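User: Structure please.
Assistant: Input sequence and predicted structure:
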Amino acid sequence: MDGGHAGAGLRGRGEGVNLGLRPETFDPAAFVFEPWWFERPESIHGISHARRVMIHAHAIAGAVPLEPVEFAAVVTAVAWHDIGRTHDGCDPAHGAKSIARATMLGLHRTVAPEILERAFFAMEFHSTDDAIGRERGAALPHSESLLRVLWLLKDADGLDRVRIDNLDPNQLRFAASRDRVDEAWALLRRSP
C-alpha cells in the first residue's frame, strides 16, 4: 500500500496501516473515516472531530521527531480513538471501549503488531490523567515510544477542544501543539 494516495491508511476492509506511511506523503484531509467504525459518527466525537484531530496530529508530527512505526501508530490511534464512545460526557474508559470496538470490527487484523501496540496504548490512556499513562508506560518495553504516540494523540485531540470552547494551551505537551491554537480555531470554522 502506498502511504501517499488519497485515503491511504486504515480503510477497515483488509487495508491496514504499514510502516511505509510517512508524514511528508500523508494527506490527512483525504484520509477515509468509515461511518460504520463509530458508535455515533455524527456526534461531537464522530467523524468531523476525528478528521480535525487527524489534521492536527499530522501537523504536530511534522515538528516532533517520530520513528515510522510511531507515525503509523498515531494515524491508527487518531482514526479509532473515539469509535467506542456511546455518549459525549466524561468517560475515561472510552479509550478501552474504542479498542474493543476496533477489535470486534476486525480493524486490527491488517495492522502490524508494533503499530497496534503503540496505537492501542495511546487509545487506552488518551482520556486519562498523564500520570496514569506515564506510570503504565514505564513498565513496558518501548516506553518512550509509547508515550510519544500517547502525548501526540492527547495534544491533537486536546486542540479540538475548541469545539466545546474548552482548550487550555497549558495542558498541551509539545511546543508545536501550543503553536497550533489559532489554527485549531480556524480549522473548526472551516470544518465544523
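The CA atoms of residues 40 and 46 lie 6 Å apart.
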